[in-house]
Each structure stands twice: as structure tokens, then as C-alpha cells.
Design brief:
There is one protein chain. By secondary structure, the chain is an all-alpha fold. It has helices spanning 7-19, 24-36, 43-52, 57-64, 73-88, 92-95. InterPro entries: SDH (IPR005631), SDH_sf (IPR036714), SdhE_FAD_assembly_factor (IPR050531). It comes from Halomonas saccharevitans.
Length: 97
């Protein structure tokens, strides 16, 4: 994170704060995705990520651990993007979940 006070930097800081969930497993998925992929997403996927992090931890856990997928197609898409990112990057912690 940098000290930029632009609206984009403020949004990024807010997203980072809301991505820290208190569940280690969720932190290992959401924070790297935010840091490495969020900026490359189109506006619809960025909006889906912002909406996703407002969900309850237990729902996020079930979805991100691939126990079930969200019914909403937009939500399902962003969850799959996060899971695919974790599975295809050098994230040893994710492999141990």
C-alpha cells in the first residue's frame, strides 16, 4: 500500500481492510487476490469482488473452499476467479488448506 490519497487509493485501502476477515483461510485467498488481480479486473468483476467481501465469513468459507458455489452467477464467477488465482499462483499456504 502507498500513501497516495487519491480516491482509488482510499478504495484500495478500504478493500484491503475488509478483505482481512479474521479467518486465516479467507485471508490467504482474498488478500493476495486483491493485491495481485483486482486492478486487472473489469468494472463488473471489481464490483462483484466489492459485493463479495460484504458476505458473511461462513458463506465465504464454504464458497472459497469449494464446498458449494454461490447460486448467483456473478458471485459464482468472482469466487471461481479467486479460487483459480489461488490454485495457479505460488501460494503454498493455499495448498495446505
Amino acid at each position: 500500500m502507498n500513501d497516495d490519497s487519491s480516491p482509488e487509493a482510499a478504495l484500495r485501502k478500504r478493500l484491503y481492510w475488509h478483505s482481512r476477515r479474521g479467518m486465516w483461510e479467507l485471508d490467504l485467498l482474498l488478500i493476495p487476490f486483491l493485491e495481485q488481480r483486482y486492478g486487472d479486473l473489469d468494472e463488473a468483476d471489481q464490483a462483484a469482488f466489492r459485493a463479495l467481501i460484504d458476505e458473511e465469513d461462513q458463506d465465504l468459507f464454504v464458497w472459497l473452499m469449494r464446498r458449494e458455489w454461490p447460486e448467483d452467477p456473478t458471485r459464482r464467477r468472482i469466487v471461481k476467479l479467486i479460487v483459480e488465482h489461488a490454485e495457479t499462483t505460488d501460494n503454498d499456504h493455499y495448498r495446505n488448506l
